[in-house]
Queue: 3 jobs
Job 1
Amino acid sequence: MLVYLSKRLLMTFLVIAVTSVIAFLLVHLSGDPAAAMAGEGASQADIETVRETYGFDRPLYVQYLDWVSRVVTGDLGRSTYLRADVTDVLARHLPVTATLGVCALGFALALSIPLGVLAALRPNTMIDRFSLWLAVAGQALPSFLFALGLMYLFGVYLRVLPISGSETWWHFIMPSVALGYYATPAIMRLTRSGMLDVMLSDHVRTARAYGLSPWRVVVRHGLRHAIIPVVSLAAVQLGFMLGGSIVIETIFSLKGIGHLAWESIQRADIEVIQAILLVIAVAYAVLTLLADLLNAALDPRIRIS
Amino acid sequence: MSPGRVALRRAIRHGGFWIGGTIIFVIVLMAIFAPLLTPYDPSVQSLSEGFVPPVWAEAGSWEHPLGTDNLGRDYFARLLYGARISLGLGLLTVIISGTIGTAMGITAGYWGGWPDMIINFFITVRLTLPVVLVALVVVALIGSSLWLLILVIGLLLWDRFAIVVRSATQQLAQREYITSARAIGSSTPRILFREILPNITGPLVVVTSIEIAHAILLEAALSFLGLGVQPPDVSWGLMVAEAKAQLLFRPWMIAIPGAALVLLIFAINLVGDALRDVTTPEGKA
Amino acid sequence: MLLSRTILASGILAITAASAQAGKENDTFVWSTSTEMDTADIYYGNQREALINAYAMCDGLLHRDPITNEFQALLATSWEWTDDTTLELELREGVKFHDGTDFDAEDVAYTLNHVADPDSDMKIRVLVDWIDNVEAVDTYKVRINAKRPTPAALQYLTGTSPIYPSGHYADAPVVPGADGAERRDWGAVQPVCTGPYKLAEYVAGESLTLEANPDYFEDSPKGKPSIGTLVYKTIKDPETQIAEVVTGGVDWIWGVPPENAEMLSSMGNLTVVSAPTMRMSFLSLDAAGRTGDTPMTDLKVRQAIAHAINREAIAENLVGDGAEVQKSMCAPVQFGCETDVKQYPYDPEKAKALLAEAGYPDGFSVPFHAYRDRAYSEAVLNDLRAVGIETDLQFLQWRALRPKIVDDEVQIGHLTFGSNGILDVSASTSYYFTGGPDDYARDEEVKAWLEEADRTTDQEERKALYSKALNKIANQAYYIPLFMYGRTYAFNKDLDYPVTPDEMAHFYLAKWK
């Protein structure tokens, strides 16, 4: 187990390192960071001053190492637009996205696991076909269309849910549904196939032969085993949601990091863009690491292969 | 019968294949014959004729069967010509991403060892980067021409190709007929092209369909944010973005391109699912 | 550290249900636009939203009545030009800043000297560049020494130049540069002012909350504040804004598209009103060849572009009520704005003929930069396409576009300018044609006329000089004036509030009905 752990940690570290280089290069090889930072009313001389002050005239690898050395000490730079340290800005925006991601995942799990179990219990029946069709149809709907539709129906027409902002739990309902439903088909399919496998396994069949009701057997024994790959998939999906929340956040005016990233891109607020790309990548890498470790802990076969 | 013909026969009997296939076929026809189906140029404006509602509304008429947008451009024309870009973009990006991903997948799956580890590393790095944000950064900072968009999306969406092709290749590479082909001295390119490639077409075709849908959706999202297709070009994603401001008062403006997008993706998914069922019959249970 | 703060903040977020409830019952007025405020200090940002908030929470020396346009005494009770370049002002006694300190001449001298300093990094130099230095002559008397005669000086001393207490900027954060170099971020200091509202909370990019100041001095031309709390919220998406104002989540928005105005007013809980503004929409053309030797340097090409655009159709159909075609490169309400200049009527055939004469019978291709109101830019683009000019639209945010303008990269720019509400041509035409980084015409003759007009005190002479400059600009089609913006406002029916033609929102004058 230890060997596995150290291999995975090394891999994660390498991935993060390479991602940081890519994030840095993406941002610095475009346009002119000095001109962007100098901003309004700046003359050529002003821009040159900024270039020297901030060291944009140094070779790229030097700037990169400078940035990395600051990052590992916790200094993510400063946002020129918001006039605040990036760390503080992120600390304000990250909770919104984290809450959104967790709620969206919760919604997806709450919807897809029961459906998956039900479909597995009654394979090839109406329920099974229906849930599969629902899944396929759901995936065809782009998230922004779904979000706009929800906003119109529940926010404006029925007036039961708030339209924008992130002040209360109610504000997160529509965004979570809009963001989470996309993960539903994958989780549902995985649950279903996992449950089917389990139900055909020896010890479940034996339990049923003893007369135990299918429900108890399935739910107590089957689900426990089928859930393992689902947890791992869920962690990965959470990672995707963190990186893909930008459209939902824009529509519902949620001030999360996706929204912040988009704004910063438009404003050429370089330090923020770099930091967000890095943070999202790190979050995703950590989540997948946890998912893999969980899998390895629960399923010894993985460790050995 | 060759596996290809078996699959084809199964496909013909599969309901989803027909429904999805027909829808796609109709959309493709509409895109190709757009100039014949509408007299209007989708980007010529007529400012005094803005916001004409579709023919089924009170103020609508057959002159503009689906109405006009804010600049007076005929909506039906925009829908038809938009199909060209949405479809064309989906196809072209998939050619790029498919080529990259398949090449990487075959390399990793066939040779294993170091090439496999390196390619796995690339895949992991690619998965770790948030696709939408990276695309936004590149397009925002370099500029948004249609070709750049295709290139960027193509260069970002190769991961699933690589993963699926790799695993399919791995399974094949261990089969006896491959090892015996090697034993008799067949050259590597020969093995790759004659034995491996034809036998992974099953999963490859399935992934292709998924990724076409993925590319179209990604373009729609980028256009929605304003950094995808630019005027005078028109795509369905851009139409939704432009109609967003009219959500409350003229919902038909979003509903029409939105429904078109959903229908297209749905059809692609149906066909993809049908192909998956057909090429791996054991997986259906 | 980041992780634990995230977890803690998520928890708090989950528990608190407090939100700014809008409306009369809570005596909280919520207004919203799409802009993100990057600073609350109007000296360090020139967003309209910052100016609106500055008028509510800060006072300048003079106040210009929004309806009559007359100057009134605010922090200064009287003023006099003792000679061409010296302005003496008597100040009001008994005024307190929001932090409790007393207002006097030292504060005026400190504030104006700080921002007038060329190193102050202040954003709108035209407001303070005329000042040489300011002296506190007595406790309530101040003398402003101008570098040269500045007829528009009184305009500059209104709400766009708030007064802060002495030492206000002393705590500006030090911003680290590379290799040990340092800068001060003056714009990060929260303003402390004397106005009818106090700054309660400012969250950069998101919101700004003001509370009524019960100790605001009597006899102010701004009156006493009526509404208890004013909250500004950024909502990026226009349709979300509309949805919010319809459902009562927000009390005031502007920028309602004309096609929605009628439907909004039929909703019953809203007042929908249009008003003209001072904001110009125009095309800057690279006549001087700053980007290189492009077709824009040819007079015929520029005139062709002018004839190609259907300005009436855009103003009437797209911009809506309150908008009108702009005749000259200045706002008609500004002093010195000569509108009787060469006009280029919509004539695509003539445009094509001119292009052919210039050597482009098949048109040409050109990058087109814009930053706001995309639909208007698209309409212009489509008109250009119709005469053969293919454009490559680069739609950016202003902060990303400005560096390109400075860096000689913009051949055609679709720009707007509100002149900061200053009713004098020196704040608009002179901004664009006196050789600064925004000047893509670089005409020495025009520059000379404008600079002289900016400095002369004789009104008739000024008008004549501005007229000469504006005529030449029109004859040379250096820039193409398109239209004057109109704005449509939608607000809570319970709000009693004067809609003014200056594109400002004077919320300190608003009351609930």
Job 2
Amino acid sequence: MQAVLTALVRGVDAVNWMIGWLMAVLMAVMTVLISWQVFARYVMGNSLTFSEEVARFSTVWLTMLGAAYAYRYGALIAVELLPGLLGRRMATTLKIAVALASAVFALVLLREGLAITARVLPQTAPSTRVSMAWLYAAMPAGAAMILLNALAVIADSLRPQPKVQL
Amino acid sequence: MTAILFGVLLILLLAGVPVAFALGLAAIATIWQGELMPMLIVPQEMIRSINSFPLLAIPFFILAGNLMQSGGISQRLVAFSRTLVGSMNGGLAMVAIVTSAFFAAISGSGAATTAAVGAILIPAMVAQGYSASYAAANQAAAGALGVIIPPSIPLILYAISANQSVGDMFAAGFLPGFVVVGGLMIFAWLHALRHPSVRDAPAGLAEIGRAGRNAILALLMPVLILGGIYGGVVTPTEAAVIAVVYSLIVGVLIYRELPVRALPIILRDSAITSAVVLSIIATAGLYGRIILSLQVPAAISDFVIGAIDSPWLFIILVNVLLLFVGMFLEAAAAILIFTPILLPIAINFGIHPVHFGIIMVVNLAMGMFTPPVGLNLFIASTLSRTSIARLSVAVLPFVALMLVLLMIISFVPWLSLALTGR
């Protein structure tokens, strides 16, 4: 049992590590595209058409993947009043309950996100002409990561000495 | 159904479910129970809320703030402020306030301001004989300037949800920001009368000039950003990306304090902070959509307009409501949820939408350092190694002071409207 939990936590953390750097790349892409757009418009006098759309799509991906990542390492904003008032055991139980609630949210978002992605598959984005599924797929992808991380948080709480590896 | 929408949210928030997930779950529970609309609206509304070009300003301002923090800009602002007010009674507390105001004018967030300025000044204040809890409380309160003085993420969000120009909202934030700076300075001076501490030696004009020249690139930045937006030359999102490029050039090439190998980590950390704010905006947008479909705004508006007849009373009620909300809900979520509910009533009472936005933002800025939950409070507590419990007591006088300043800003619309040219 312990070995399974440890493997789960390690596996999710490895995926998170990759996602962390993917987010750095998305941030860099957004910065380069929009600075290029500003330069093109004010210095070269012509405007880019695709940069805004790609930057917006990147932001949506960054938000969904980042929410899962931030949740795992306790960086999401939450009211941490009650856990502070409870004893150690009760606080752990509450933490698991919160992770289960987050998992329910992720499950609904995963199911509905997949449905809407399938539905928008034939639609194309106005300026890049790619399928709108490129935008909407951020929802099920982010939801899947939130779900995985909720499981990792639960596994962490069940291990004797929880250790978070950044 | 309205009871489920609000009740489930309150329970989830108190249990410690992250705000972004709690808003989504409360919306899901309401849709499921009332069979209002297909569940497909959940991903649809979340995408619609964040797939917007003006919102791109948020990650860029966060990135610019982090680059400035690591690029030596905060130290130069501190050195310059010290030559200006360091020799006065309560000098270093005032330096923290003035530097926070400068930093607020180049960063869009209260948390960034508290972290960037507090990291330098809280230890410096303790070294000069200030108590750690006072230094931390002063910094947590001064950090609130980060969202009142433009550029500011909450002001952008209000502009989007109230359909106002971001440029107008930014112009409106200036004078109220100065009111808060003035109030905090007077408070620091009074505090120092009873708790004397070491002061800096007075700086001569030459010294002020030298420190000013060192900080000139940081001081020019607000002129560049806000001038560009207000002059209608660039959009706020473009101004934000200019701020990123500017702080990159200054930090890497001119001050040479920002090593290129540190950039990937800064990019990743800024992306995470952005996701924390944007994920709340995504589910708050969904939550707001459900509120609208239940016709809550109309019901509340009918009730309020029937029950009270004075705009002053309405402003006081709004302030009480938002103070309470700000204690538990994050500013971004509070703005997106409450603007559609409250703004139509405010307009009905003849309150200008720009002025109303400033009232909301100052109010929620206060929530950032009001116990029990406040981001600035947590950051200042970490920086000063003071417990949240002790800091919560030390910050109470600042809460009282801010209430007075909030009343001034609420009841003197001129402060918000003078610079917008309306």
Job 3
Amino acid sequence: MRTTTRLAAFLTAACLAGAVQAADPVKVGFLSTLSGPSAAIGLDIRDAFELAVKLNGGKLGGLPAQVIVADDQMNPDVAKQLIERLLKRDRVDIVTGIVFTNVMLAVAPAVFESKTFLVSANSTPAAYSGEGCSPWFFSTSWQNDGVHEAGGKFMQDSGYKSVVLVAPNYPAGKDALTGFKRFYKGTVIDEIYTKLGQLDYAAELAQIRAARPDAMYVFLPGGMGVNFVKQYVASGLNKTIPLVGPGFSADEDLIKAVGEPMVGMYNTSHWAHDLDNAANKRFVTEFQKAYGRLPTLYASQGYDAAQLIDAAIRDVKGKIEDKDALRKALRAANFKSVRGDFKLNVNGVPIQSYYLRRVVKEPSGRITNKLQATVLSAHPDAYVGACKLK
Amino acid sequence: MTALHHSLLPRVALPALALLAAFPLVMQAIDQPFYIVLATRILIFALAASSLNLLIGFGGMVSFGHAAFFGTGAYTVGILMVHGVESAWIAWPAAVLMSALAALLIGAISLHTRGVYFIMITLAFAQMIYYVFVSLKAYGGDDGLTLAGRSQIGFGVDLASDVVFYYVVLAIVATLLVLLGRLVNARFGRALQAIRENETRAQAIGFPAYRYKLACFVLGGAMAGLAGVLIVNQNELASPNLLHWMQSGMLMIMVILGGVGFLYGGALGALVLLLLEETLSEYTIHWQLGVGLVLLAVVLFAPNGLLSLARRRTAGG
Amino acid sequence: MDWILLLEQTLNGLQFGLMLFLLAAGLTLVFGIMDMINLAHGSLYMVGAYLAATLLAYTGSFTVAVLGALAGTALFGALLEVSLLRTLYQRDHLTQVLATFALILIINEGTRIIWGSQALLLNAPDALSGPVELFPGLTYPAYRLLIIGVGLAVAVALYLLVAHTRVGMLVRAGASNREMALTMGVNVKRLFTAVFATGAALSALAGAMLGPLLAVQVGMGESILILAFVVIVIGGIGSIRGALVGALLVGFVDTLGRTLLPMSLRSVLPPMVASNLGPALASILIYVLMAAVLFWRPQGLFPARG
């Protein structure tokens, strides 16, 4: 499946004008989860990425951009075939997107081997942040542990003495709870690992009820999170056991699905739509104008991915064949991120701040997240120490 | 129904083989290396589908759990590699053996049932194997097991090269298809078909039906295991989807599409289905609709599979 | 042993089992009477959920949405039966597998074309989206209680229909001996269409009711289809009573197994082993159950065929 954004008109005009050198387009392979219960994530990232390219006049770094979109269906097998096609047939210059870590682990080796840059707009597993770090890997999201570390710190600071943790049984899930426990020093009564893609949490909620913790921290991305929160509210547990989650478990898509019962829920995130900087204001306004909805934090990552690629290509003046130069430019991350301060560490993973958000009901009646505080400032990821790149 | 002798069709097969041998060279010449990868995949599924055809078409055993053997072969290679065994000479036979063993166990129990119950029980066993592998977190669990690289053959044959891998796969698949042809035309194959047509009569003549069917089941499982070995090497990933019942269904569709009981039925079905997927997905996101419509057309106009059309055109039938 | 936990899980098992029954009932009748393997049965379940979600978005009434979904899917099922599926009854099972598999692809993709790839929102009515206190200590989601209620009501209605009406008699006759029923002059065509449409409506009901708990998405049918097949094999093909017993069995074994097994394993085995073994055993349990039933009673628990 691919949608090719071809700017033939632009190219023709450029050629006719003669003033601009006939530039080869930069081919970007956008591999993401666009179907299934968690399709909202991939679709948001795609929408934001395409918006950024559009706002840039259909160009990235001055070169006309050809974005080839592919749907991995959250399936590593399918992803493997698609990446072969993107790398060997379409010969993309950069691969981006990649929502889920199981897909990432399946396709990254092939991307690195073909000496292609991978700018992840979401999945940033420990496997590629520490010892396994690669000079081809970059991320505009957050190391998988990041928001969970902030979550752990927040719950520690809030005085919850005992918690139950829930995460899906896959690498990012395990990363998440590891990160949480790095900063939370209270008692973890139970760690419940659910099946990836599971939708009915009756059994788990019963277990949590029986365990009687002070609070619970839940990492369930996409459709899984929607169902969990809905069922959590339905079971009445929301009256007795508060739920804290990472930002995307309380983001716009969930608010739309669950609505008012979510008011009051705390969540940690590296981005909030009310962050006060010029780039963010423009992003949120344009996104709303183009798509009629508020962006989620996933969208912010997609937008930044496009910006990062744009800045890097501009820095090498369009000479993307010079991979070493392009790498240096990507590492420099010379652009204004929507999250404010943005720096990339030697392993290609962002060093950034994590904020506390809360779901509130605004006077206008709109239910959305509001920025509350900063939990972790300029926080590097926990694995960079093991990375041997300079 | 089907003829008793299943010709390997040398007049068609040999030129086809020559074309297949020349294929990578042509692709390299026009700088389209991706299609070598695609062709390799088609060959591997041709093998997998043919192994199921042996069961369904010749043995009369409709197994809905064939993916179990396909996946077991793949996972055996993967697990061995995790433990440092990279040599194909050890891993591949081991994988085929494991699949054969699984087929022996599953077949021994399932063949005591008939009809739809056989279908369901083979499905049940396949699901059990699926859940076992998925629960092994040490070997990837839900995400599958990534291989460090392809198996090592030695003698200067480097499977990491797509072209070399293609030729190895072609050699294996071609050999196995020839062996399959010899098998179904031999006494074993004819006995099997007799059992398929009328088990009571065959039994009365003196063919121990159960033993023949079990042997057939094990052979089919072993063949599928070999296909699994190849697929895990191509993808460098042993994914639980290889064991899923949808995979069993896919293989069955390939067999039915190509022609149940025709020697090249599995291979043709795999070719058509995968090519259809590939070409349609270039034109539209909704390529599955196209595949569905084509399959329905086959049901309506070529109810015994595509190869049955060829038979209709040639004399008699 | 935490009684509350056990009770809650029993209720969950009941709820799950009753929904499985809705799916299995239609499937077993189609298989039993028309001798047709219908892989697309799960697609009818999906269509029901999608129609319910769409109608809910338009009318805001859950009841209207569910009833509309029932009617719409029944109509869709009837159309399918009359146009395509009717030609498959005479064919062998493999052809039916191929054709109904093709149908799955077509219906899935068609749904994606009409509604998009994202999951649709289907929320339980507000009045029922909270918990109910069954007794001090046990609060249970009101909506799940509704599902249990609806499931039981349908089970009773089906029983009355099949055991105490003329139509039901025809259905039973057709299931136990089709050729004989044909010979006796039963209007086969209309009966078959009616059976199929009813099965479709039941699946749609399951889809619409489960929608708020699960996700209304393309492919939701396939995951539950396999369980439905397991149920009818356990229960006996062609028997509604078998479908009910089979579904409840599967529902209880699966739900209770999922909680009790890992818990009890953890108390006797080291945690690493338990965490690997627990989920695996729990998932395998229903298949082991099916294999066991097939050994003891190869035709299922309540075979319809005389």
